[in-house]
Every structure is written in C-alpha cells, then in structure tokens.
C-alpha cells in the first residue's frame, strides 16, 4: 500500500470498528497495570477464561508494588489453572524491576517495556498503544493472519524473514493518532471477520486492500504451521500419607510447572497393564524425588490431560511410609493436612488429586 491507500485503509477500519468491534469487557481500558496483566493472561488463553482470573489476581495484587512484594507461591496460586506458569513468575520479576528501576510505573516506550522479564515485542506494543496511546506496532495470531492476507504473503510467517516482513508492514499501518484503538480494530477484524477458516470476506471493510482476496487465495494464506506429533505418556502421581498428613514436593527449576507444589510425579517405565500395581516403579520414583521409602496401597484415579505435544495418562496412587521411615521435611518436601492444600499452588491435575483426598475419595 502507498501512503494514500494506508490512509484509506485506516479510515475504513476505524469506521468498521466503531460499528462492529467486539464489546470486550475492557474496551477503552487504559490502566497500564491492567493492560499488562490481561495481555499476559490472554496469551494462549480465551477471553472468557481470563476474566475471573484477572479480577481475582487484581483483588490480591491491586498494584505493581503489591505484586513485587508478593511471595512467588502466592502469585502461582492465583495463576493456577491458566498454565504456562513461567508467565506468572515473570510477572513478579518484572514488577520487582518496575519498582526498582521505573518508580513503580510501567514505562510508556515499547523499547523499554521489552527490557522487562516476560514482555516480548507484541506485549510491549500492546501496552504502549493501549495504555499510553503510543504508535507501536503489534503482531499476534489474529493480526498475523490478517497481514498475510492483506499482503498476499504465501510463505511461512513464522520464519525470520516472514516475521520481519509482517512487523515492517504493521509499523507502516499504525497511525500516530489513536494507535491503541487502531490496533484493537485490527485484532477484532482478525478475530471476527478474517478468521482462520471460512473468513467473512464479503463483509470485510478492507477487502479492496486485500491481495489474497483479489487473487482468490484467501483459503491458502497464511501457510499453516505443521502440526506437532503427539506423544502418549503414562505418569504416576503418588499421594503418601503419614499421621493425617500428605507429602507435597516443590517442583524444580528444570521441571514442568517449576515452582509449583505437587505430589511426587514421574513417568512409569512399564505401564502397559493398568490393572497391576507397579510397586517397584512407585518405590523407586518416590525414593528418587523425596528420599522416602513407601508401601504402595492402591490406585484411586486415572486422569487424562495434555501438555504441549504430550498426551498424558496420569495414574494416581495412595501409599504409606515404609515401617521405620520418619516423615522428615526438607526445602522442597513438606507434609500438609488435606484442609491446607488450598494454600499451595498446584497443577490442574495435582489439584484434582488433592480435592479427591480432601473429600475422602479413596
């Protein structure tokens, strides 16, 4: 697009947005802290799922300073269920840096925002434009698809050259006046009109600017990412009881759900026969993770879930300490009464097992 086309494109898009843009609950919200939180939460999560989390998070951590001063466990507990827990840890780290380096206020420039933990190029552009009305470009799932079709870009948008092309195009489009509203209009158009399948091209306000539409190539643009191969895994979770308490273990920095608490959990090497209690495997796994020897008793549940490219069957067992084993504690191992499970951040499946134990479903 040349300069005149860009101007026409902007005008048509904003006119459409005023009439047909999504009525999001935070429409027009410009509080930098709220904008930052919601943008981090919305990564790989739906709007409907984010709403209750956002309000609960803000109720416990109403300011950036409150978040900076919070214990990591408290932050993870509020994040529990959203997944991708490194995002929550980075929120806290970024809040601490904002307090020490920026006087407790998010900086308005995208270039400064990108220096904060967990804030990438898109999130920086979103905060800068939505909260501070800075002319910062954005590229995320909805706008990536929209840009590819507008440009007739048939190559892979996820390559280095593809990303460069799209970011340069986004920077040319964003206006100096009302850039936040313009960026939201782009995202809304991608989400509601320029959809991945069966886009509503006839009702698109900018179809005359769209190369894919003009060339009848909308269905083949953008190039789809290759689907990851799914690996099926069987794991064990072992709830160990002693004197009315249950053992919880904090997961290490290199483990999935790092920093969260969980029951000892590990892959089962020979899981083929689900009717057999894998005594030796359970004892070895628990000993490796906690140093405790156990007597496995029974399986009480089987939970199926997915994490990235893994489809996991989690077999949940109850066990007791072996005779003569003291229930010692260490930095990453503790014994907890069932009614105190709610004070610990657990994975979704860990919470399901904890709820069964709390409700006596053995």
Describe the overall structure.
The chain folds into 2 domains: 3-220, Hypothetical protein, domain 2 (Endonuclease III, domain 1, Orthogonal Bundle); 231-358, Nucleoside Triphosphate Pyrophosphohydrolase (Alpha-Beta Complex). It has helices at 3-20, 32-41, 47-60, 64-69, 72-79, 86-101, 110-113, 121-132, 141-151, 160-173, 179-192, 211-214, 279-290, 348-358; strands at residues 231-242, 245-250, 261-262, 265-267, 294-307, 310-321, 333-336. Strands 1, 2, 3, 4, 5, 6 and 7 form a 7-stranded mixed β-sheet that branches. The model has no long low-confidence stretch (mean pLDDT 94). Strand 5 (294-307) and strand 6 form a beta hairpin. It is α+β, with helices and mostly antiparallel strands.
Strand content: 5-15%
Give me the count of strands: 7
User: Could you tell me how far the N terminus lies from the C terminus, measured between alpha carbons in angstroms?
Assistant: 65 Å
Radius of gyration based on Cα positions? 25 Å
Low-pLDDT residue spans: none
Class from helix and strand fractions = alpha+beta
CATH topology of the largest domain: Endonuclease III, domain 1
Tally of separate helices: 14
Strand-and-helix sequence, N→C? HHHHHHHHHHHHEEEEHEEEH
CATH 4th-level superfamily of the largest domain: Hypothetical protein, domain 2
Average residue pLDDT: 94
Largest sheet: 7 strands, mixed
General shape? elongated
